Amino acid sequence: MSENYKFNQNRKCEYFPCHNVKDEENFNCLFCFCPLYMLKDKCGGNFTYVNNIKDCSKCTIPHSKGAYEYIMSKMDEVIRIGSERE
């Protein structure tokens, strides 16, 4: 069974690769904008806060091998937060 939907790469993107990585061949562009950003400190990534803004520039989790599985493992929490009413 094909699992090509778990990996996408766009070498024509003017930002490719958007993170400093050693292995460009396996750089995954599928989650160009990380859907876990809203999880704040529960995303599991390597981030910092700069002027009270979450800076994910040192995080490569969404772009690494296994990114699809990791992101999907956190989607229940994203959906729960997104469904909350203020």
Automatic annotation (TrEMBL):
What the entry lists under InterPro entries is as follows: Zf-like
Where does the record place the Cysteine-rich small domain?
4-82
The organism sits in which domain of life? Bacteria
In Swiss-Prot or TrEMBL terms, this protein is called: Metal-binding protein
Query: From which source organism is this entry?
Result: Crassaminicella thermophila
